[in-house]
Design goal:
The structure holds two protein chains of two kinds. Chain A is mostly helical. Chain A has 24 helices and four strands. Among the domains of chain A are: 187 residues, no CATH class; 142 residues, no CATH class. Helix content of chain A is 51%, strand content 3%. Chain A starts with a helix and ends in an 8-residue tail after the last helix. Chain B has one domain. The chains are: A mainly alpha, B alpha/beta. At the A-B interface, helix 11, helix 20, helix 23 and helix 24 of A face helix 1, helix 6, strand 7, helix 8 and helix 9 of B.
């Protein structure tokens, strides 16, 4: 059960992780992972330390300003964090509020764009979008929506920065309702126009520090520009206020930011929002293979509604402490995202001598480049991850990893060199799967014997063990978490 | 209710099985279905192409008054004559290659295409165009249903998707669609070489041959693996293709190069999917210089090379290219020198069998709520030609199938004579 919990609430378990948590009951482990704020937050300080995966440094390692380094840092965190659920949720929110680096970089250049996507918390009070997701991952969903509406990367991505009084810009207002809260069918085209007007004047500005306008020292932050706000009343097709009123009243421009807060509050309270969020979290944490458990989704939505604080934590707690989460009917019933596949494969295979940079191009070919979701709807998940080309990319990454870890794998396999059956026993214990068919097992076994008379020498292990690891990592059985 | 791509697959994962036939039979099938058959290449412009910047009504004064900062000056459009309503039209100035194809009678432009109550959502719109079903846009796509209707055994490479994820229009019930982004990297690596690598590949195929009926999702992934392993050798022949035209280095250009290679090698593919994005031009549309201008450049350079390459190879007559998007954009520009989501758009067809020219009529852009060519208080272009009637012509006249059964209704009436 521990492996299951760590695959779902994190990115898999290394042998060390498993021994660390060995004394926990499943419920204790879930609680431990859920209350991650009590765990240390110093993963970045481990970058470059031996016994950890490496990063590839080109010049200087600048994860706050160079997107490829930001990708390496995030993969490193997924590998080594003591707060796996925080990184897992950061990935969830990155998919949910999908924002792509390339458009931001096309607008403000690569340095500002990298900062906007995922800079660590800065002394000037700013942070990147994904860092904001980490900070607010289990908090108040309404507050998260407000931060998203003010987020510089989002203001670029959905064009909020160009939303002005005389000509409202609909992009953000539309997706706020269609994708971030209530969903299609719960709002009208007139609501889209009204929402666009609500957010007129929400913008960003360049802050110059000590007269230094260069991209490293200057930064963007969100502002509200009252001169560009539409002060007229805005009427919606759904209630905005608890008394049922559907109209945001006319307000002085100086108070106009309240329009957006009122709309977001209404959307966060809308019953369709709680249900939609519950469905998304259910598919992410419990099962995206079978039809969802409607009863559990209702309970999760209810936990959010009755929390009084739009609590993501309450919803998560209901889902993760449910019997369904641990039910054998749901184990391995979740298609592994490319990032999950890669990090889990490394955690279970080993990483001494490996740079996480080796995963970055393969991830593109698997269809999931971090900070580059295909559109505002995020990645198409589930079976959509699997096409012939993306499957080949998984098989080929497995080959890269097995080749890279050849020496380490052979050393570990030496204790099992007596027979192919023993080697297979070692590998199948290392790589947990739903189990192979008898023919699948025979295929692995026959591969170990193919072309040789088994003697178990280092030379044989050097060839056969990485080949068998490639077969296991490339099996369908390993493509589920 | 919004039925997303995800919903469909969750309910129907067993649908995704790839066809498996012994390799020697495959060659026969490829030979029988390959070079002699017609090809359909679908080019999807993702994000909602602004039809009024592609085919420009340059004599309509309201085109200029409602788009003060993003209109193309009348003097720079590439004039393509008048439609039957008398509207003077011009192609975007960057579409020089398509203008040449148009002048040669090989480009049909169908104005004001769409459907009633057009969705302004990218995702719903994409699914509606993909399924040809505005009321229940889920399940297999219109081309997937065509593939399902073909008599077996089908060559597994009968359809080739150049994107990483299967597009809705190609989703089929009876087969998985091969995704081949780049033939040169459609290969299998191994930690070992020679006989060891071969033994490993055979073992991988054997592990993937398991079809657990109680776990259709596992069977689906196994099917995907086998489909890849069974076709990499054939796809490798396409990687060696040397085209007769120079393709641009853009992803779009390279995808079209691969398509031409697949046709040239006659590997049996009949339906190709190619996509190019960036059309969601809400802000800083840059019609005369900038984003949109560059989009037109990417489109034109790719299609021009493709057209010329096919012409040299004698494949133009057996090729039909359909170019479409999920919606047109608003008639008026917004405050960010861009355009928001609209309704009616433009479809284009290119190929040796196309009846070129201007089909349908342009919208009159007069901002009058009573204007019959517009809708949403004269903010959006009202569709004139149902996109399903264009699909019907392609199905009936090009693919030789029955559009009524594949589209779930008779859309032949009112179809523009494009083929």
């Amino acid at each position: 059960m521990h492996e299951h919990i760590l695959r779902r609430m994190g990115f898999g378990a290394s042998p060390d992780d498993l021994s660390y948590f060995a004394d926990f009951t499943p419920a204790q482990l879930i609680d431990e992972l859920l209350h991650y704020a009590e765990a240390p937050d110093g993963t970045d300080a481990l970058i470059g330390h031996p016994a950890h995966a490496g990063v590839t440094v080109r010049g200087t390692f600048s994860p706050d300003t160079v997107i490829n380094d930001a990708r390496q840092r995030w993969l490193f965190r997924m590998m080594h964090t003591r707060r796996p659920l925080q990184e897992k949720l950061a990935l969830f929110w990155h998919h949910y509020f999908a924002t792509a680096y390339s458009k931001v970089a096309g607008t403000f250049g690569s340095i500002h764009a990298t900062k906007m996507m995922d800079a660590a918390r800065q002394p000037n009070g700013t942070r990147g979008q994904v860092q904001m997701f980490r900070d607010m991952a289990t908090g108040n969903f309404r507050d998260l929506l407000i931060e998203v509406a003010k987020d510089p990367a989002m203001l670029v991505w959905l064009d909020g920065r160009t939303n002005i009084r005389t000509r409202p810009q609909e992009n953000f207002g539309r997706e706020l309702m269609e994708l971030f809260t209530v969903g299609v069918g719960q709002h009208t085209e007139a609501d889209v126009y009204a929402a666009a007007r609500v957010f007129t004047g929400w913008n960003l500005e360049l802050v110059v520090v000590n007269n230094r306008t260069d991209e490293v020292n200057s930064y963007y932050r969100s502002i509200y520009n009252p001169a560009q706000h539409d002060t007229d009343p805005k009427t919606f097709s759904f209630p905005i206020y608890p008394d049922g009123s559907r109209t945001i009243p006319a307000r002085a421009a100086a108070q106009g930011v309240q329009d957006g807060l009122d709309l977001i509050d209404a959307l966060a309270r809308h019953p369709a929002t709680a249900e939609r969020l519950a469905r998304r979290l259910y598919a992410f944490f419990i099962n995206d293979v079978d039809a969802p458990d409607e009863g559990l989704i209702r309970q999760a939505a209810e936990a959010y509604r009755t929390s009084g604080t739009f609590s993501i934590h309450a919803m998560l707690r209901r889902l993760l402490h449910s019997p369904e989460f641990l039910s054998s009917a749901n184990v391995y019933q979740r298609y592994a995202w490319p990032v999950e596949y890669v990090v889990r494969a490394i955690k279970e295979t080993g990483w001494r001598g490996l740079s996480v940079d080796a995963a970055i191009t393969p991830l593109v070919n698997m269809g999931q480049s971090l900070y580059e979701p295909p559109d505002v709807n995020g990645w198409a998940t589930g079976p959509h991850w699997f096409t012939t080309s993306s499957m080949l990319a998984r098989l080929n990454f497995a080959s890269t990893l097995a080749t890279n870890q050849r020496t380490n794998l052979v050393r570990e396999a030496q204790a099992f060199r007596a027979s192919p059956e023993r080697v297979l026993e070692f590998l199948l214990a290392r790589y947990q799967t739903p189990g192979f068919s008898s023919d699948g097992y025979s295929a692995l076994h026959d591969y170990l014997r193919a072309g040789i008379r088994w003697t178990g020498t280092d030379a044989q292990l050097t060839t056969k063990v990485p080949g068998a690891v490639r077969l296991l990592l490339g099996s369908s059985e390993f493509q589920f978490v | 209710m919004h039925l997303s791509r995800r919903t469909f697959v969750r309910g129907g994962v067993t649908a995704f099985t790839y066809g498996f036939i012994a390799p020697h039979v495959l060659q026969d099938v490829a030979a029988a279905q390959g070079q002699t058959s017609r090809n359909l290449v679908v080019v999807y412009l993702s994000g909602g192409n602004d039809a009024l910047s592609t085919v420009i009504p340059y004599r309509d004064p309201f085109y200029y008054s409602r788009r003060p900062s993003i209109a193309v000056p009348a003097g720079t459009v590439l004039q393509i004559g008048q439609d039957r309503s008398g509207a003077h039209l011009g192609l975007h100035p960057r579409l020089r290659g398509l203008k040449r194809v148009f002048d040669g009678g090989r480009l049909a432009i169908v104005q004001r295409t769409g459907y009633p109550n057009s969705s302004r959502s990218h995702f719903t719109g994409y699914d509606i165009w993909g399924t040809a079903n505005p009321t229940a846009p889920s399940g297999p796509g219109w081309l997937g249903r065509y593939l399902d209707s073909l008599p077996g055994p089908l060559d597994p490479l009968v359809a080739w998707n150049t994107e990483r994820q299967t597009p809705r229009p190609l989703m089929a019930n009876t087969m998985g669609i091969h995704s081949i982004v780049n033939p040169a990297t459609y290969v299998l690596a191994s930690p070992n070489t020679g006989a060891e690598a071969l033994a490993e590949r055979e073992a991988q195929a054997r592990i993937a041959s398991h079809v657990p009926v109680e776990r259709p999702h596992l069977a689906f992934v196994n099917g995907t693996t086998r489909a890849a392993l069974n076709t990499i050798d054939r796809v490798a022949t396409v990687a060696a293709y040397r085209p007769s035209a120079t393709y641009p280095t853009s992803g779009f250009g390279q995808a079209l190069r691969a398509v031409a290679g697949a046709m040239n090698r006659g590997i049996g593919t009949r339906i190709f999917w190619v996509q190019t994005g960036g059309y969601d031009t809400h802000a800083g549309q840059g019609v005369n210089t900038g984003s949109y201008f560059n989009l037109m450049g990417t489109l034109d350079d790719g299609l021009k090379a493709f057209h010329d390459d096919l012409q040299v190879q004698g494949l133009l007559g057996s090729t039909l290219v359909l170019i479409y998007t999920e919606f047109g954009r608003r008639v008026f520009e917004n405050g960010s020198q861009g355009t928001d989501h609209g309704a009616g758009g433009v479809m284009m067809l290119m190929g040796g069998g196309v009846r070129g020219g201007l089909h349908g009529t342009a919208a009159d852009l007069r901002p009058d709520p009573q204007n019959p060519t517009l809708e949403s208080s004269a903010g959006d272009v009202r569709h004139e030609t149902d996109f399903r009637s264009v699909y019907a012509s392609i199905i009936d006249r090009w693919l030789g199938a029955d559009s009524v059964s594949l589209l779930g209704g008779d859309f032949r009436t009112g179809a523009p004579p494009v083929l």
